[in-house]
Amino acid sequence: MAILILISILLLSAPAASENEVTGIIGESVLLSCDLKSSTAIDTARLRFHWQDESERVLYSFEKGEENQHQDSLYTNRTKAFRSEMSSGNMSIKLSQVTLEDKENVYRAFATLFGENDKHNHPCRTTLLVAARFPTPSVTVNKTNMNSTCSTQRGYPQPMVTWTIQDRGNRTLDPWEVQTNITLDSESGLYSVWSQVNITENQTVTCHIFNPVLRETVSNTTIVSPSINTDPAGDVQEGFTPINITPIIITIVIILVLILFSIGGYFVDKKRVTSMCWPYIRYG
User: Fold this and answer.
1) Residue 170's closest CA among 135, 120, 205, 138?
2) What residue stretch is flagged as signal peptide (predicted)?
3) Is the pLDDT assigned to residue 238 strictly greater than 80?
4) Are 72 and 59 contacting, i.e. CB atoms less than 8 angstroms apart?
């Protein structure tokens, strides 16, 4: 009983709520961490705790050894606690299959230790930010119109797009030099990016896509050079160098001539041999 009272005092004297902010990737799992920081073992048979969102929907519940008796259907099969660590005060849960609906939600953990005098504690508060990584953008060059286009899709939230050009120096293009269109897909809620800049030959152009939540940038670079091959539509592929077929044609012609000479020589020799043998055949 003395140990139980001590644990209750520790829980009650803990800070009101630890503030935390985490980022979850759409479709992946994220940890909502919470630690009661108890210096003594907690009797889980007397423990009850739960996590809830801003709408007071229960993500996860634990009561005297039983899990999720009060869980909201929105979070069915999406949460998992660390039962083997509860006795040491670990009230963290893993939230899986993060969706856009989870964005900027504030989750709170509440704990109660049953005893002679029930003690309640609100130990943790976590704000969840949601993001989706943008794939490396595709950068193409159109030599007919002398422009370069950058595109990527299925990222979140709305990104920042910048271009850098390197010719005699390295500079970032001003917004008025860039034509950018960012669209939101109504079904998935994810963003697509299309951006275009004018170019000149012998330039190196790079498109940068910055995700403000993940604070990461994905980039791609192409070189505008006179040797880039152009197809009938004017689209080009980076790094393609036209093949000079003249030496190949000359080599093939020489080989054919040598073959014809060899065949001709064969028939001449055969005719000569036949002529020499004919008298013997005739008067034999």
Assistant:
1) 205
2) 1-18
3) no
4) yes
Distances (CA, A) of 92 to 27, 39, 61, 172: 20, 17, 11, 44
Both structure tokens of 78: 């999406």
Asked whether 191 and 156 are in contact (CB, 8 A), the reply is: yes
- The rounded percent of the chain whose pLDDT value lies above 90 is 56
pLDDT level of residue 146 (50, 70, 90 thresholds): very high
| Cα distance between residue 95 and residue 105, in whole Å | 13
CB-based contact 45:112 (threshold 8 Å): no
- Are 205 and 162 in contact by the 8 Å Cβ rule? The answer is no
Q: Above 50 in pLDDT, residue 242?
A: no
- Would you say the C-alpha torsion 245, 246, 251, 254 has a positive or negative sign? positive
For residue 271, count CB atoms less than 10 angstroms from its CB and return exposed for 0-12, middle for 13-18, buried for 19 or more: exposed
52 neighbors 108 (Cβ within 8 angstroms) = yes
Q: If DSSP codes are grouped into helix, strand and coil, which group holds residue 24?
A: strand
Q: Does residue 246 sit in helix, strand or coil?
A: helix
DSSP state of 202: T
Distance separating alpha carbons of residues 126 and 105, to the nearest angstrom: 8
The two tokens of residue 162 are: 């910048």
**Sign (positive or negative) of CA dihedral 194, 195, 198, 203:** negative
Distance of CA 102 to the CA centre of its chain: 19
Per-residue pLDDT, averaged over 34-46, amounts to: 84
Q: How does pLDDT run across 205-224, given as a tens digit for each residue?
A: 999 999 999 999 999 999 98
DSSP conformation class of 229: -
Determine which helix (DSSP H) or strand (DSSP E) holds 251, and give its type and residue range.
helix 246-283
